[in-house]
Amino acid sequence: MDGDIIVFQKDDPENGNSELPTEKEYFRDLCADVIFCDKTIPNDLGFVVTLSNKMNYLHIAKTVAQRPNTDPMLLQFFKSQGYRDGPDNLLRHNYEGTLRELLQFFKPRQPKKLYYQHLKMKITDCENSQFREEEITLYPDKHGCVWDLSEECKKSVELGEKAAGKLRLLEIVSYKIICVHQEDELLECLSLAMKEIPLDQMDTDKENEMLVTVAHFHKEVFRTFGIPFFLRIHQGDLLDIQEKEYEKFKFAIVMMGRHQYINEDEYEVNLKDFEPPPSNMSHPWPWLGLDHVNKAPKRSHYNDLEKTIKIPKETHNLIN
User: Fold this and answer.
1) Which of 189, 199, 207, 99 is closest to 146 using CA atoms?
2) pLDDT at residue 236 above 50?
3) Same-domain pairing of 115 and 149
4) Which residues share a beta bridge with 209?
5) C-alpha–C-alpha distance, residues 35 and 112, integer Å
6) Which of 46, 171, 227, 232 is disulfide-compatible with 37, CB 3.0–4.6 A?
7) Which segments constitute the Ubiquitin carboxyl-terminal hydrolase 7 ICP0-binding domain (predicted)?
8) Domain interval for residue 292
9) Which residues contact 279 (CB under 8 A, 6 or more apart)?
10) CB of 270 closer than 8 Å to CB of 156
11) Phi (first) and psi of residue 57, to 5 degrees
12) Domain boundary among 100, 123, 146
């Protein structure tokens, strides 16, 4: 049945004490106009979708996917940064909250914005990492250093038999390892990951060996996902990766946003390939990329050697 719906409100003095004093504010509270911007397009104006505040992740994905006419499982969503315009943390497909909970930190008149990107594989495969994540809450001394955090973390996790019994603290941005924090550094980082150190990575020959960072991506190097890790390489050797699941990967050396594919059966390690240009030593170091050809690999022995202890944001607030 077509037609207009006219809504009126009884004049009641007690309405002023309500959180939603007018019928206009009441109906606005039921739905939200959300701007969805393409994460891969700078300054994308995006498109507006009216969504119910009670929608869960799957309902949101199905509704938004109608605009670009794509499969909702091929969309990946990101939260919006609160302090500036831009994408923030990844919104995982198993998010159990509602849209209202997702937008609760936006101010009443602030434009509500989320980000998305198109994937070449299903979101379930994209987020299926070869490493296990273990999320814990820690309460270290806020005036302490990385060593204090490491010792506190050891009390809450079971270290592997094949590991060195030590942990290292990594700074991870966009699913890539940016740096390793030393034990005497103060706890001032924002994006942290504590990892168990395998025995074969404790002592390296600095002249002929190197620990190179490895990250997962699909097609384009800026589409990283999963949990990054370290790989020990030796000058002149072939890449020491012999597991079957890596047959589904293409290997690439990534430097300054550009990647060059290599054949792991023929490529002989040259440590200089993983060093920054001499003219710009302050630039991020090159890294080894695993381009997922089909889907995420099966579990590997790295799963046992490098268990990740994910430190939630609540911990960051405690130690800052």
Assistant:
1) 189
2) yes
3) no
4) 234
5) 6
6) 46
7) 1-103
8) 133-319
9) none
10) no
11) -60, -45
12) 123
